[in-house]
Amino acid sequence: MRNVIVGQSGGPTAVINSSLLGVYKTAKDRGAKIVYGMVHGIKGLLDGQVADLSERLRTELDMDLLKRTPSSFLGSCRYKLPDVLGNEELYKKIFAYLDKLEIDAFFYIGGNDSMDTIKKLTDFGAITSSPIRFIGVPKTIDNDLAITDHTPGYGSAAKYIAATTKEIIRDGLVYDYPVVSVMEIMGRNAGWLTAATALAKGEDCEGVDEIYLPEKVFDLDYFLANVGKKLKENRSMVIAVSEGIKVADGRYVCELADHVDYTDMFGHKQLAGTARFLAAKVAEKYGVKTRAIELSSLQRCASHITSRVDVTEAYNVGGAAVKAAFEGMTGQVITLKRISDDPYMCITEPADVHIIANVEKKVPLEWITRDGTYVKPELVHYIRPLIQAEITPLWVDGLPRHIRLKNPKMRD
Amino acid sequence: MRNVIVGQSGGPTAVINSSLLGVYKTAKDRGAKIVYGMVHGIKGLLDGQVADLSERLRTELDMDLLKRTPSSFLGSCRYKLPDVLGNEELYKKIFAYLDKLEIDAFFYIGGNDSMDTIKKLTDFGAITSSPIRFIGVPKTIDNDLAITDHTPGYGSAAKYIAATTKEIIRDGLVYDYPVVSVMEIMGRNAGWLTAATALAKGEDCEGVDEIYLPEKVFDLDYFLANVGKKLKENRSMVIAVSEGIKVADGRYVCELADHVDYTDMFGHKQLAGTARFLAAKVAEKYGVKTRAIELSSLQRCASHITSRVDVTEAYNVGGAAVKAAFEGMTGQVITLKRISDDPYMCITEPADVHIIANVEKKVPLEWITRDGTYVKPELVHYIRPLIQAEITPLWVDGLPRHIRLKNPKMRD
After folding, report:
1. Residue A162: which pLDDT band, with cuts at 50, 70 and 90?
2. Are B333 and B146 in contact (CB under 8 A)?
3. Given pLDDT bands bounded at 50, 70 and 90, which one contains residue B262?
4. Nearest 5 degrees, angle CA A356-CA A152-CA A240?
C-alpha cells in the first residue's frame, strides 16, 4: 500500500480523535508511506487542504494529547456529497486528486452523513473500477447508527451526562422547599443520550424523577399532572427531557412557546428551549421555583470526563478500518459487536455500508416504561458497560492540555 | 468546650463540604464532645433539625467522599435573619435551643447573607452576654466577599469554567464556516467567574475572543460592531458574557428581549437568557450560525473538577474557624490573606464580621480593558494560582461517588 487519507466530519465527540489516532498508528504500523489528513473533511479535500499527519504528530506526547483533545483535530465539515448520477464531474475531481496523492485507502470518521459519503465514493469507485478502498469509521454521541451495538463517542457522552446529572441532583435537592429542575439533553430523534441520566441512580443518589425520550409522544398535561403529584409531597425533583420530544400533533415541545427565539440560516428553528418552556409551565401552574438546565455542547466536547472503554473502542474501530482496507475490503463500515455482557466484551466487525448508511437507530420502545416517564433496567444494563473506567486529562498549570492543528490551511 | 454546631447556607459550591469537614475534624481533634450539624441551616435549626455528625461520618472513606461531594451535605436554606431589634423573641428561641444542646461555638458556612447571620447572632449574643462564640466560614463561587483575598469555592468554579471554555473553543472552531458561540457565565453583579474564561488562552488554545463583565456598561451596538469586524475575517469566535451585564439605562441585557420567559415566585425575572438574546441578535444581523451556551448550575456543583488549592483552603478555613472559637473569639469571619504570589501562599486570618458582612466585592475596573471587551493580565495572574492541582473523584462503576445525608429530618 502506498498512501492513505483520513478525514473527520459532522459534529465533534470527545473520542473522535482517538479513532483518528487508531487509523494513523495502524496505517503507519502496517507500512503506509504517508498518512494524509483531510482538513475540514471532504469539503477541505475538494479545496486541496490536506496535511501530512507525521508532521503534525511527532512525539508520543502529541499522541497522548490527541486522545485527550475533544472535537475534530483535523477540522470538520457538514457537507453531503450529491448523488453520483448527474454529478460525475465532482466525483472525477475527487478521484483524480486522490490518485495524484497516490492514495490507496480512504477513511472517513463520522456519523450518518459520513457513512453516506463512504457509500457514494464506494459506488463511484465500483463504476470506474478504482482500486481505492473506502472504509467508514463511525462516531456519534447520538448512538443512532444501525447495525453497530453502539457508536464510539456515545459512551463518553453518556458518562459525562450521568456524572453531571448526579451533581445536578445533589445541587437540586439541597433546599427545604421544592425546586423543580428540568435538564435538557441532546438527541433530536433518538433518546440514547437522555436515557443516560438513568445511570445516576444508585446507593449514593436518588436519581432523576422522570425521563422523557423523543421515541414517545409527549403529553404536556400528563407531564404537569405528574409533577403536581410529586409536589404534593413537597419535594424537589430533577427531570430529564430530550431536546427532541414532540407532542401528538408532531410539533417539538419548544415550538409550543408563543415566541420563537430565531430561525437559523438553514431555516432550522432553534430547538434549545424545551427545558425552559417546561420549567416556565411548571412555575406558572404551581408557583414553585424551577430551573432549566441545558447540558449544551459540553455533551459532545467534555473531554475531561471520558470513558476508557469508549476511548479504547474508538481507537480500535480506527485500527480495524485500516486492517480491513489492507486486507482488500472496500465499502465497509466498522461496527461494534457485543459478544458478552458479563464480562462486557465487544469486537469490531466490518459491515456493508449500503445496509448501514442513512438508517437511524432509536431506543426500542420496550426499553421505555409504558407511560413514557422513565426507562427500563434493560436500557441501563445496555449503557452501563460503555461508561466504565477513565482516561485522566494531562493537567498543565491547572487545566487539561490539548493539541491543535496549527496552520491548517496547508495546500498540496 | 462542650458541643459545637455547624450549618451550611446559601447556594452550593463544589467545596462547601470541605469546609464542613475542616470544622468537624478540627473540632473533634480539639476535644469537642458532639459536633452537631444544622439540617437546612438556621431555618432547620429553628425547626429543631439537627444531626450528630459523628453518626453521619463514621469512616475515613465517608470523609474522603464528603470532600468530593458537591452541594451542601447538611442541606441549605435561603433565610435571612430579621433585625435583632424588634425580633428578640426569635433570637431568644435560637439561643435557648443552642443552650439546650450545650453549644459553645456556632459555625456558619455561607456567603454574604450567612455572614449577616453571624453578625446578628454575635450582636444578640453581646447584648445578652451569651458565652456562645459565632464564627463565619465564607464560601461562594461568586468571589464577591470583601476583605478576603478570595472565597473558598471560587477556585474550583473558575477551574471548571476555564476547562470547559477550552473544550467549547475546540468545539466552536471546528468548522470551515463562521460560528459565533456565546457563553453565559454566572455572576449577577460581579464578573469574577466570567473573568475565569480568560484562563483558557494558552499555547494549546486560542482563548475566547471577547469577555464582557457586569462591572462595565454593556453597549449592544458596540458588541455587534465588534463581532461584525471579526466576521469579516470569516472566522468562528467564542464570546464570554456574564449573566449580569447591563445596558446604560440599567436594564439587564436579557431584559431587552421582547418577551420574558417568566417571573419566579419571588418576583425575580429569570435572568438566564443573556447568551440566547445576544446569539439571536448576531444571527439576525449577520446571518451566521450562532450558539448560546449557558454553563448553568454546573458552575457551582461540578465536583468532578475541583481545584486542590481550593479544596485545601476550604478545609483550612473551616479549621481556622474552630481554632478561633477555641481561642475565645466571636463575631469573626475567617478570611484568606495572600502573602506571596510566587510561590503562591495564602494564610487564614480572622476578621471582624461587622466590616465584612453585606459588602460586595467587584472586579476592579483597572483589571478590565478600557473598551470593556477583555480582562487584563493582572486578573489572570490573580486567578491562576487558585485553580492549581486536582482532587480526583472516587470512581465507582464509571461514575464519581458521593455521600449523602440519609433521613435528614432527625429531630432532637
Report:
1. very high
2. no
3. low
4. 100
Give the nearest partner residue to B304 out of A44, A305, A399, using CB atoms: A305
Neighbours of A348 (CB within 10 A): 18
Cβ(A243)–Cβ(A216) below 8 Å: no
CA–CA gap between residue A154 and residue A146 (Å, rounded)? 14
Cβ(A89)–Cβ(A82) under 8 Å? no
**Which residue has better confidence, B255 or B122?**
B122
Q: Which amino acid is at A203?
A: E
State the amino acid at position B37 in one-letter form. Answer: G
Kindly list the residues from chain B whose CB atom is less than 8 angstroms away from the CB atom of residue A305: 304
pLDDT, tens digit, for every residue of B129-149? 999 999 999 999 999 999 999
> Edge-to-edge strand order for the sheet containing A133-138?
A50-52, A35-38, A3-8, A103-110, A133-138, A332-341, A344-352
Catalytic residue list of B: 142
A301, A380, A390: best to mutate for the B interface, most B CBs within 10 A = A301
Q: Coil, helix or strand for A47?
A: coil
The verdict on B360 touching A (C-beta cutoff 8 Å) is no
8 Å CB contact between B296 and A302: no
Q: Find the radius of gyration of the CA atoms of chain B.
A: 22
Q: State the virtual CA torsion across A304, A310, A315, A316 in degrees, nearest 10.
A: 170
How far is the alpha carbon of B328 from chain A, nearest alpha carbon, in Å?
Answer: 32
The secondary structure of residue B53, as a DSSP letter, is: H
Contact between chains at B297 and A297 (C-beta distance less than 8 A): no
Cβ contacts (< 8 Å) between A75 and chain B: which residues? 174-176
In the numeric block, the cell 495524484 is attached to A100
> Per residue in B265-294, pLDDT tens?
545 555 558 999 999 999 999 999 999 999
Residue B112 has pLDDT above 90, yes or no: no
Cα A399 to Cα A17, B111, B118, B164, B301: the distances in Å are: 19, 27, 36, 9, 18
Structure ipTM? 0.96
Average pLDDT, stretch B188-209?
97
B150/A contact by beta carbon, under 8 A: no
pLDDT tens string B168-192: 999 999 998 999 999 999 999 999 9
- Res A411 pLDDT > 50: no
Sign for the CA dihedral angle at B37, B43, B46, B48 comes to negative
Q: Please answer yes or no on whether B402 and A300 come within 8 Å at the CB atom.
A: no
Q: How many residues are present in chain B? A: 412
Q: In what order do the strands lie in the sheet with B332-341?
A: B50-52, B35-38, B3-8, B103-110, B133-138, B332-341, B344-352
Contact state of A307 with B398 under an 8 Å Cβ cutoff: yes
Q: Sorting pLDDT into bands at 50, 70 and 90, what band is A257? A: confident
